[in-house]
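Take a look at the protein record below and flag anything odd:
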Amino acid sequence: MKLEHIQIQTNDIQKTSAFYKDILDLPIIENNSKSVSIQAGNSILKFVDNPQFQSIYHFAFNIPENKLDEAIDWCKNKVDLIFIEDEKLITNFESWKANAVYFYDNNGNLLEFIARHDLNNAQTTAFSSKSILNISEIGIVNENPLELGNLLKTKHGLEFFSKNANSELFSAVGDDEGLLIIVQPNRNWYPTQTPSESNPTEVKIENKGSEIELKF
């Protein structure tokens, strides 16, 4: 499953555009007073202006499975990476066969670089913004994560992530290429103490040759 296009909100289009262009060095493909669209590997991340918006999102980018250490070095002069317990930066998701690091964008959104070791995507070139492969996760907040997952399965032919212990509290739909991370409201976004909130989110997915558009 591929997350081709994600649309979320920001209360400051100019600062958001500057962060992704100047800090993360990602190409801006469309920019005006109402929205900015950013090319993130094979995905497009679109922010829509909403001056009243005061919440945050969580999303992740897939990077080459052998490049997490280089990604950390690349980030150090750009963003403040979030420490996990014992002053560690890297989270090991053993059952997912993945490692990740976290940081914030200018909006306070929780961003993640994740290296998934079951993907055959190792690279030999030095890590740069061009190493960002795609949007790999978007957080969706819903009162009934398992119920929503089953609805997406029935209506759109999507599947629960086989590596995740899906439950009524936390479910994941998709695969290593792209995941909808579905959590209940007020569940803290790992590894922070920031509670999740349901925010307007639009997602365009490619799954088994079919295009699917979802609004949450």
